[in-house]
Design goal:
This protein is α+β, with helices and mostly antiparallel strands. It has one domain: STM4215-like. The chain is built from five helices and five strands, in the order H-E-H-E-E-H-H-H-E-E. The chain has a five-stranded mixed sheet. Strand 1, helix 2 and strand 2 form a beta-alpha-beta unit. The protein starts with 11 loop residues before the first helix and ends in a 12-residue tail after the last strand.
Amino acid sequence: MGDLEVRNLPYPPIWINAYIKQELLKYDFNNVIVIPSTPTAIDDVYKNTLGSYPDLAIQYDRLFRFRRTPFYPMKCEQLLYYIYSTNATKIYDAMIIISQLLDRSDASAEDLNKWAAANPIYEDEAARIANDRQPYNVYFHDMKVYQLEETRDLGELGAIRGLTLNKLIIEYDYHVKEPTGSPEDKYR
């Protein structure tokens, strides 16, 4: 059995999702959940709530992209965000916040890098107590946001009537780096 842990591998969505969630909570959002895509994830979230839906639910898929340059350490990926809410205004507000936050090319990437270096992520409360943080081992270079389609009602899904949806693509370029606190930050 190997000594390596999957959680130590670079995974940019961890940092993007945590950053977006924290920024949304600064505005008029009381509860935001961010979950990976599964066939029934959103249906289950809304079926299993006890009368209090989250203000916003973000479901995401990580999309691998081609390399735009022959420089192999630089990677380009996308996150496909499905943004759900029972309040269409919350979706519009989230779209404005996310686009203002991440659609500024290298300035957005620089802001995210500063935020990630200053805000450790822990898997759970036990990890926080043990100071067992997620390694910050990616460096963002560029970010863009695209709206995929208009906001629409999801009335065809019976279990979640009144829920609206919008889709965004967040495109980002990054390279893998040594985790924060390592003696050097090098491409690998």
